[in-house]
Write a structure and sequence with these properties.
Length: 311
């Protein structure tokens, strides 16, 4: 089966700036695909090129096994877009907004009505149908934004940072809704600055920077690419001399002491905790609480790109 999204050798320039540098991407049907990169890495440019909202110098883009062009309206009807910037009309009510955006894909009002009602129920806005966006909280406006993008039941949905500046309850509701859409058959492309969201919902993740793919795989596969293994955290009073010896241990990448906590980052190994505790014992240091944490997606991102996600 052909991938639902296939991008090959895509090149996009803004004057002298190379925004996409022979960029490749393949997404299979049924995936929740996370697209990560620092600001300016090319994520939004890549999405806009895929949607044919931008022209590009070189490359091939196929959606649903067919070439995607600016006039491929039959393909565009199978796509939903939930942009980062809320795109709703303040003059229209919740119901009218969803009905309007659904009408861009479904012309017959009799077919559109049940779709609009289902989208309202799906995002939990039944009690706000007659309200205008300015009367809604930030979280409810985000839910409205989602309903407008998915009311026509698209097979492929692009979510560009849908949980920015929303409360934890609304964030949890949005993520649960995305997982439910995927269970119902939609393929999802998801961008976010929140690593924990990507780890929670994405089946496969791409890290890109400077218009190129740096790594792609499952959460577990990406973590295997980097040297960082577990991080060991110990409550203890650690003098500088003991800290220097700790840093010299095999498999130790770094050892930092601050605010009564020793944090030791290690390569993957079987005896890291035992080795660290043995070194503390030699220095006659009595530890308090001890816990170990596996590498996070943020650790992977920082090592691969050399930058924080929000740089």
């Amino acid at each position: 089966m052909a991938p639902i999204v296939s991008v090959k050798n895509l090149v996009k320039r803004y004057d002298s700036v190379l925004a996409l540098d022979h960029f490749d991407l393949e997404i299979n049907q049924g995936e929740v695909f996370g697209l990560l990169g620092p600001n300016g890495s090319g994520k939004t440019t890549a999405i806009n090129c895929i949607l044919q909202l931008l022209t590009y110098e070189k490359g091939q883009i196929d959606l649903f096994g067919r070439p995607m062009t600016a006039t491929s309206y039959d393909l565009k009807r199978r796509i939903g877009v939930v942009p980062q910037n809320v795109a709703v009309f303040d003059e229209l009510t919740v119901y009218e907004n969803i009905d309007y955006f659904c009408s861009l894909y479904v012309k017959e009002s009799s077919k559109r009505k049940p779709l609009v009602e289902e989208a309202i129920a799906f995002v939990g806005l039944e009690e706000q149908v007659g309200m205008r966006p300015k009367k809604l909280s930030g979280g409810l406006v985000r839910r409205l934004n989602i309903a407008c993008g998915i009311a026509h039941k698209p097979e492929l949905i692009f979510f560009d940072e849908p949980t920015v500046a929303v409360d934890p309850q609304s964030r949890a509701s949005i993520l649960q809704g995305i997982k439910e859409m995927n269970r119902r058959g939609s393929t999802i492309i998801y961008t976010s600055h929140y690593m924990e969201e990507v780890e929670e919902i994405c089946t496969r993740i791409m890290i890109m920077d400077k218009g190129r793919t740096l790594a792609c795989g499952t959460n577990e596969q990406l973590k295997e690419l980097v040297a960082a293994g577990e991080k060991i955290v110990i409550e203890a009073d650690v003098p500088e001399a003991a800290l220097i010896k700790m840093r010299a241990l095999p498999h130790v990448l770094s050892a930092v002491y601050a605010d009564g906590h020793l944090e030791v980052a290690c390569e993957n190994g079987e005896h890291n905790v035992a080795d660290v505790l043995a070194e503390l014992a030699k220095a006659r240091i009595s530890p308090g609480r001890i816990w170990a944490e596996p590498p996070t997606l943020n650790d992977v991102f920082l090592e691969i790109t050399g930058r924080q996600l929000r740089d």
